[in-house]
Amino acid sequence: MNRGILLVNLGTPDSTAVSDVRRYLGEFLMDRRVVDVPWLIRRLIVSAFILPARPRRSAHAYAQIWDAAGPGTGSPLLHYSQQLTGALQRELDLPCALAMRYGSPTISAALDELNSAGVEQILLVALYPHYAESTVGTTVAAVREALDDSSRLEVLPPFYRNPDYIDAQAQLIQQNLPEHWDHLLLSYHGLPESHLTKADPTNTHCLKRADCCQVPSAAHATCYRHQVLETSRLLMEKLDITEDRCSVSFQSRLGRLPWLTPYTDQTLTELPGRGVKHLAVACPAFVADNLETLEEIGISGRSTFLDAGGESFTLIPCLNTEPDWIETLAGLCRRG
Fold this sequence. Notes:
alpha/beta; Rossmann fold; 4-stranded parallel sheet
C-alpha cells in the first residue's frame, strides 16, 4: 500500500497586512478547541472584543519577524515547515505534504497533493511534541473531517519524551548557550487550566492535587502540563543542569481565565531580582521558529528582562531544519 506523510503546523497569515492577519485570527479563534465556549459566546468574544483591535497589534508584531529566515522568506513558521517537509521527503523517499491548521496551505490542498501522488495510507504528523486539544486534537479532527475515508489515516503520537527528540533538543540548546549564563528558562506555550481538566479522561486527576503531574495516571496521555514537565526533566537530565539553574514557564496567555503558571512575562520581570543577570531561553513546545518565539520572546521578552535589570539575553532557536531533528522525525515516521 502506497504510504505518504501529512505534516501539519498551526498556521500563519498570508502577509503582514492587517486584513490578512484579521482573517487568520478569525479562523484560529473561532475553533471551539481553541476558545472553548459555546459558539454564540465565542462569536461575540472574537468579533466584539478581539478582532477590532488585535489584528493591528499582531500585524505590527508579524512585521518585525517577517523574512527572519532570510530575504524573501516571509513567515518563518511557513518557511521552516516547508524546508522540513522537503528534507523529510528526501530522507524517507516518500510523498510528503505540508498543511496549516489555519490559513494556507490548507489541509484539503495537502490531501489533494498526496492523493495525486497515489498515496493510499496517510501518516499524520502534527508538529507539536506535546498533546493539547487546541493543537494536536483540533488537527486530528480537521484531517479526519477532510478525508473521504478516515481508515486511511494513522496518527503519530506525541513525541515529548522520545529519546532522539530529547537528544536533538538538548544538543541544540547546548550548542547555543553563551559562554556566560546564569539561568536557562524553558518557556512553553500556555493553556487555560480548563483545557487540562476537560482533557482528563478520569475527571479526577488533572489539577486536583499539587503533585498531579508526578503521580502516574491515565490522564497523562492527554495532559499537556505533565508532558511539558517531563520534557523539561529529561532535558535538564541530559544537559546536566540542576533545578536551581533551570525553570519552566508558560507564555502567550489570552483573556482573563486562569492559565498555566508561572507566566513567562512575569518570570522575565522577576528573574533579575533573584540574581539572574545572564539568561538563556529555549521554547521546546515549538519545532519551528514563529511569532511566539521570535517576537514574543526574542524581542518583547528580551526587552522585559533587560528593563528589569538583566544584562544579557540569549534566545535559543527552535529545531527548524537541524539535521538531528530531520533524522529524528524520519525515524518517528518509519516507526509510525
